[in-house]
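Design a sequence for this backbone.
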C-alpha cells in the first residue's frame, strides 16, 4: 500500500475522495506536505447511512467472529507499523521511535479487545422466575479523536465499539488525519462494508457529527471546552456520550524520593510527546528538602535533551503539533516571563517549525496561569511544599481530575497520599502507564464515562434484562 499519497476516506467499504480538501502540515517545517479530504455533508450522511445499514448484520455476527476480526486487524496494523510510523512522524511530529510505540499500543489494544467478553448476569427471581441480563450494542457510534495520540486514541474507540457489535464513523483531528485514513484503508479489507467508516474534514465536521440524528453515541477525546460543546449537542436527542478531556495532573515528590534515580523518569512523564499528553505531569510539587537538587537535575536533563525534527536521528522530542497550539504555549510562556517568573530553559531549538524550548518555571505562585492552566506543551511549573496536607489540597485544587503521581521510597506512605488525590488514575513511582484491561476515567471536568477495561467496553452497550419462567 502507498502511504505517501492518495489519502481517501473509507465510506461503506469504498475509498472515496472529496471535492474540497484540507492541508496537512509537517510541524517540524511548518509547510503543508499532503492534502486530506474535507468530507461534505452528503458524504457524512452516506457514512452514517452505511453504518446504520451494516449494524443489524454486524450485531448478529457471533462475538467470536468479531473478536477474530479484531485480532486480524492487530496483525495487519503490526505488519504495516514501519510505514505508519514514518507517516506519523511527518504529520504529528513525534520522533520515529515514539511513533512506532504508538502503533504498538494500537496493536496491543486491538489484541486485548479480541479476548474481551461482556458479562451476562443471571438472577433467580423466585417463584419460578429467572432474569438474564445481557449487554447489547447501541447502534452507530460517532468517534472523534485529537491530534496528540491520533492512532492510539482512535483505536481506543474502534476496538470496544466494534467488539460490542456497534458500527462506527471515526473522525480524526484535522491536524492529523493521514494515519487513520490509511489505517481505515488497511482495515477495510477485513470488516464488512459500512462497519468501519473513516472520514476527515475541517473544524466544521465535528459539530455536524454531534448534531447528526443517526448516531446513537458520541465517543469524544479532546479538550474540556470542546467536550462541553459535544455534550450540549448530544443532549438534543440524548445520544450517549463518553468524554475523555483535559487534565492538569499533579505529581508529588516526597522528601525520601531518590532524586538521582527518579528525575529522568519524572522528566519523561512531563515532557514525552513534547508534553502534549492529557496525562502528562503538568504541576510538579517537590518537597522543600530536595527541591533545589531536583530542580537542578531536571534542568541538567532538559539541557541534554535534543529537540528537533522527529525524522532526524538522535532527536528526543519533536515540535508542537500545530500552529494554534504553538501560539498558545508560546503565549503562556511569555505571560510567565512578563509576570517576572523565573524560567529555566533546556537546549536550543530549531527556528523553523513549531518548536518551543523545554521550560521549567522555578516555584511560581499557585495562582499563576502557568500553574492553573493545562499548558499542553513543554512548560512545567516546579512547586515547593513542606506539608503533606497542604500539598494534597493544592494538588486537588483544580477543575481537572485526570491522573496524578506520587514519588517516594515508602510505598505505603505513597499509597496513602495517592488515595487522597481526586483523580481517576494515580501512579506511584511511575507515570503515563495505561492498560487496555484497566478502566481510565477522568474525575471532575476531565471527563464523563470510562475508556478501557470491561467498564470501557460497556460504555458501548446497554443492558437488556429478559424475565422468563425457569424450566
Ligand atoms: P479539541 O477539543 O480541539 O479537538 C478534539 C477533536 O474534536 C478534533 O477531532 C476536533 O476536530 C473535534 N472538534 C472540534 N470542535 C468540535 C465541536 N464543536 N464538536 C465536535 N467535535 C469538535 O482537542 P485537541 O486540541 O485536538 O486535543 C488536545 C486536548 O485533548 C487537551 O485538552 C488534552 O488534555 C485532551 N486529551 C484528553 C485525553 C483523555 O483521554 N482524557 C487524551 C488526549 C487528549
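Sequence:
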Amino acid at each position: 500500500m502507498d502511504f505517501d499519497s492518495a489519502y481517501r476516506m473509507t465510506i461503506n467499504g469504498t475509498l472515496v475522495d472529496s471535492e474540497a480538501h484540507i492541508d496537512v502540515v509537517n510541524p517540524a517545517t511548518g509547510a503543508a506536505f499532503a492534502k486530506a479530504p474535507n468530507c461534505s455533508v452528503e458524504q457524512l450522511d452516506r457514512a452514517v447511512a452505511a453504518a446504520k445499514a451494516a449494524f443489524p448484520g454486524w450485531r448478529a455476527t457471533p462475538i467470536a467472529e468479531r473478536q477474530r476480526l479484531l485480532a486480524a486487524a492487530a496483525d495487519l496494523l503490526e505488519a504495516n507499523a514501519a510505514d505508519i510510523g514514518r507517516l506519523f512522524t511527518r504529520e504529528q511530529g513525534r520522533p520515529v521511535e515514539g511513533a512506532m510505540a504508538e502503533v504498538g499500543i494500537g496493536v496491543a489494544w486491538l489484541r486485548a479487545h479480541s479476548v474481551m467478553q461482556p458479562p451476562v448476569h443471571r438472577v433467580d427471581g423466585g417463584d419460578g422466575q429467572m432474569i438474564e441480563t445481557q449487554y447489547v450494542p447501541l447502534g452507530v457510534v460517532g468517534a472523534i479523536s485529537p491530534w496528540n495520540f491520533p492512532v492510539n486514541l482512535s483505536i481506543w474507540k474502534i476496538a470496544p465499539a466494534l467488539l460490542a457489535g456497534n458500527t462506527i464513523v471515526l473522525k480524526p483531528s484535522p491536524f492529523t488525519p493521514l494515519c487513520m485514513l490509511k489505517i481505515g484503508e488497511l482495515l477495510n479489507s477485513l470488516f464488512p462494508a459500512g462497519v468501519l467508516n473513516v472520514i476527515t474534514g475541517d473544524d466544521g465536521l465535528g459539530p455536524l457529527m454531534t448534531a447528526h440524528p443517526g448516531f446513537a453515541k458520541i465517543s469524544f477525546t479532546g479538550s474540556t471546552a470542546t467536550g462541553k460543546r459535544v455534550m450540549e449537542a448530544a443532549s438534543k436527542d440524548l445520544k450517549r456520550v463518553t468524554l475523555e478531556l483535559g487534565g492538569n495532573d499533579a505529581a508529588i515528590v516526597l522528601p525520601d524520593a531518590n532524586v538521582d534515580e527518579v528525575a529522568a523518569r519524572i522528566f519523561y512523564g512531563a515532557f514525552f510527546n513534547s508534553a502534549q499528553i492529557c496525562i502528562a505531569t503538568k504541576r510538579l510539587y517537590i518537597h522543600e528538602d530536595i527541591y533545589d537538587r531536583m530542580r537542578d537535575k531536571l534542568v541538567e536533563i532538559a539541557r541534554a535533551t535534543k529537540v528537533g525534527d522527529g525524522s532526524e536521528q538522535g532527536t528526543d522530542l519533536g515540535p508542537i503539533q500545530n500552529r494554534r497550539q504553538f501560539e498558545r504555549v508560546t503565549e503562556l510562556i511569555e505571560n510567565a516571563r512578563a509576570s517576572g517568573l523565573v524560567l529555566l530553559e533546556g537546549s536550543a531549538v530549531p527556528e523553523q517549525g513549531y518548536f518551543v524550548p523545554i521550560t521549567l518555571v522555578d516555584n511560581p505562585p499557585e495562582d499563576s496561569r502557568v500553574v492553573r492552566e493545562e499548558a499542553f506543551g513543554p512548560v512545567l511549573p516546579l512547586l515547593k511544599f513542606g506539608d503533606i496536607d497542604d500539598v494534597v489540597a493544592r494538588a486537588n485544587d483544580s477543575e481537572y481530575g485526570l491522573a496524578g503521581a506520587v514519588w517516594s521510597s515508602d510505598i505505603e506512605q505513597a499509597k496513602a497520599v495517592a488515595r487522597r488525590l481526586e483523580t481517576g488514575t494515580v501512579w506511584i513511582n511511575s507515570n503515563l502507564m495505561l492498560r487496555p484491561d484497566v478502566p481510565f476515567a477522568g474525575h471532575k471536568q476531565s471527563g464523563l464515562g470510562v475508556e478501557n477495561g470491561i467498564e470501557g467496553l460497556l460504555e458501548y452497550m446497554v443492558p437488556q434484562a429478559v424475565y422468563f419462567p425457569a424450566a
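The chain has two domains: 9-245+446-469, 250-435.
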